[in-house]
Design a protein that fits this description.
Largest sheet of chain A: none
Shape of chain A: globular
Number of helices of chain B: 7
Oligomer: heterodimer
Number of domains of chain B: 1
Helix content of chain A: over 70%
Radius of gyration of chain B: 18 Å
Order of helices and strands of chain A: HHHHHHHHHHHHHHHHHHH
Largest sheet of chain B: none
Shape of chain B: globular
Strand content of chain A: under 5%
Number of strands of chain A: 0
Number of strands of chain B: 0
Structural class of chain B: mainly alpha
Strand content of chain B: under 5%
Structural class of chain A: mainly alpha
Chain lengths: 477, 213
């Protein structure tokens, strides 16, 4: 049944290519998302259903990532039905097929247990998501797609070189080599350290490009800014976390090889740099979708910072992956609604959203408070735990800078968000056809409720899932 | 087979420099195709025992890197109706010199790395690193979209050379998957290049400047 996780989206994707009706085709999206989520949920309760083989299996690290991707995709799929109905003038055959292929490939990343297979899957996610960014067919979206493809391809090519270096570190000993993670972890202590160092640097740059860590983040504001809202949500909450998973697997191998200290230092540095760069570009940002992209750069930085700090921050970092992914869903979907209503995403035209679209603007504002770590939302808990762990480990500089960047970003992002929601809406905007509807508002509303829930109480199954992943990362033999 | 391997890798290195120094886009595509086909041959020579699947993999490499991908690029060029000269940021001679320097650096750097006994004598590692660097130089210093795609192709060729050290560790299916990804990647990029040409009436990526801070 494990193959069904990949098979369902791919089959329905093929079906989307065959369905002739532009109006009914998007209904395949929630169908695929719902079936996927149901199968995954059943499989998490009864693991024997999703038994894998040595190439593909659902391991403790893959589970939380896959669950997040599945939840996010399901709600984005419902939103897509409403969104594509409003964009009826534009054909959505390729778009729907690529969206479903995207889900299938993200599954492949999470399930892959082979170093090479994982690389193939990550590259494939990049390729199927390119047409999603080009949905609007404007010169600007073309430019964004070009940068996304070229920077992404070069980054992922470096990850391939890193993958080969990593493999080479293991054939030193003249033993039979396989590139299954299980074998790599077993043999890690006897691997060649210089090759391992070089491999980690290349893989950090390569998969870091896909995650959007600074300074390889330059494709991100363009791609997120020009793509439709739910594509931004899936990129920021799904694809980036798949790349994060890839980095986690490499990190795990390096830790088992006894290189934990060296690798952690790199992760902390990259994390802080990403937060700093995001802060600089967020202050005075006039485009609210590009602002969300920089927020994604910031939170990817927080994720690897948490892993680098270590200790209890590893659990917090994995929890933050959930919090950030779901909150990004709220923000991108509601920002997409505001963009539709105003026909612009620049602060020169967009203000007074609270009057024009009370529900979407309210969700956007609440999402802003959540993502910047205000209680009682989920990100507050995870960010606070990371800070706590940093100070607890005696890294006062790391903790202090972390706090400073969070503050700068709160102020910078706040100025832009408040400018969007406050004030009075320009007269012409009141008569644009977009109205908040059930399909475009319920998904971000439910996602916000989940983020709030995570802030008040982490459900026991999720806590166990994350604890399993942490203890898997900490086994070092 | 080693007596023939090193000379072939030297040819690959020389092709890097030709690609960097040539001013005609069509010629650059042909040179990259030649390099790709050569890599297919080399991938057969590095194996201890040549089996049927190895021959198939090599044939796939020659087909894709030597024929299919270059044809796609040439078609994109024909449809674009543009000036066929490369427009470099830095002159052709300086970029060739840069490429030669990169080759030297790669040889010195590869010397520092601890290699498995059998690999120390062959030029595979320096050739790989030098080709990767040549690809980078192309990517950074050229303005035409097609030139940047060729840079990416050369970069991939360099990585492919390194992959030959791992023939025993990499299952065939993974190798083919990597090739397929490369092919689909270039295919999608070529489609986008065509759209760029239609939207901007040019393949000059300097026109793609609307999105910036």
């Amino acid at each position: 049944m494990l193959f069904a996780l990949i098979g369902i989206p791919l089959l329905l994707g093929a079906a989307a290519l065959a369905v002739p009706s532009n109006r009914w085709r998007p209904c395949l999206l929630p169908l695929a998302g719902g079936a996927h989520l149901a199968l995954l949920a059943t499989g998490l309760c009864r693991p024997e259903i999703l038994a894998g083989n040595k190439w593909l299996s659902l391991d403790p690290l893959g589970k939380p990532v896959l669950l997040l991707v599945s939840i996010l995709f399901f709600f984005c799929a419902i939103y897509s039905v409403g969104y594509l109905r409003q964009r009826g003038e534009r054909g959505n055959r390729i778009f729907c097929a690529c969206l479903l292929g995207f889900l299938g490939m993200m599954n492949l990343v999470a399930l892959a247990q082979h170093l090479g297979l994982m690389w193939i899957a990550v590259e494939a996610t990049a390729l199927v998501s390119a047409p999603l960014i080009y949905f609007n067919r404007t010169p600007r979206s073309l430019e964004a797609t070009w940068k996304y493809l070229l920077i992404g391809s070069v980054g992922i090519a470096l990850a391939l070189l890193g993958t080969f270096f990593l493999a080479y570190a293991f054939i030193q000993e003249g033993t039979e080599t396989s590139l299954l993670f299980h074998d790599l972890l077993r043999l890690a202590p006897v691997s060649s350290k210089p090759w391992l160092h070089a491999a980690f640097a290349l893989l950090l740059v390569g998969y870091g490009t896909k995650m959007g860590l600074a300074p390889m983040h330059t494709w991100k504001p363009d791609a997120y800014g020009e793509a439709p809202g739910m594509v931004g949500a899936l990129l920021a909450g799904g694809l980036t976390n798949c790349a994060f998973l890839a980095l986690l697997r490499i990190y795990h191998i390096c830790v088992v090889a006894g290189e934990g200290a060296h690798v952690s230092k790199l992760l902390v540095t990259m994390g802080l740099l990403s937060m700093a760069v995001a802060g600089v570009f967020m202050v005075g940002q006039r485009d609210f979708k590009r602002m969300l992209a920089y927020s994604s750069v910031e939170h990817m930085g927080i994720l690897i910072l948490g892993i680098g700090v270590g200790g209890s921050a590893v659990f917090a970092s994995l929890l933050h992956m959930f919090n950030n992914g779901l909150t990004k869903g709220v923000l991108f979907l509601s920002a997409g609604n505001i963009h539709r209503a105003y026909g612009s995403k620049n602060l020169d035209q967009v203000h007074g959203a609270m009057r024009r679209l009370p529900l979407s603007a309210g969700l956007f504002l609440a999402g802003f408070f959540a993502i910047t770590g205000s209680p009682p939302f989920g990100p507050f808990i995870s960010e606070f735990s990371i800070l706590n762990a940093a100070f607890g480990a005696g890294s006062f500089w790391t903790g202090g800078l972390f706090l400073l960047f969070l503050l700068v970003i709160f102020i910078g992002m706040g100025a832009t968000v408040l400018a969007v929601v406050q004030g009075s809406a320009p007269g012409a905007i009141r008569h644009t056809p977009y109205r908040d509807s059930l399909l475009t508002c319920a998904p971000p509303l439910v996602l916000l409720a989940l983020v709030l829930l995570l802030g008040l109480h982490i459900p026991a199954p999720l806590r166990n899932l994350l604890a399993d992943a942490v203890s898997f990362l900490e086994t070092t033999q | 087979m080693e007596f023939i391997l090193d000379p072939l890798l030297v040819v690959v290195l020389v092709l890097n420099l030709f690609v960097l120094g040539n001013s005609r886009l069509r010629a650059v595509v042909h040179l990259a195709a030649l390099q790709g086909a050569l890599l297919g041959v080399i991938s057969l020579l590095v194996r201890q025992h040549v089996e049927l699947e190895a021959v198939l993999a090599a044939a796939a490499v020659i087909m894709l890197k030597g024929i299919v991908i270059p044809r796609m690029l040439l078609r994109a060029l024909r449809e674009a109706e543009i000036k066929r000269e490369v427009e470099p940021l830095i002159g052709l001679l300086p970029s060739m010199i840069l490429g030669a320097l990169a080759t030297g650096l790669a040889i010195i750097f590869a010397d520092q790395l601890p290699l498995v006994d059998g690999h120390a004598t062959v030029l595979l590692v320096p050739a790989s690193l030098a080709t990767v660097l040549a690809g980078f130089i192309l990517l950074v210093t050229r303005f035409k979209a097609i030139s940047q795609v060729i840079g990416y192709l050369i970069l991939e060729n360099g990585i492919f050379i390194f992959g030959m050290l791992l023939v025993d560790a990499m299952p065939l299916i993974v190798e083919l998957g990597v090739l397929l990804d490369l092919f689909v990647g270039i295919f999608v990029i070529c489609i986008i290049v065509n759209h760029i040409n239609r939207a901007f009436s040019s393949l000059d990526t300097r026109r793609l400047t609307e999105l910036k801070e």
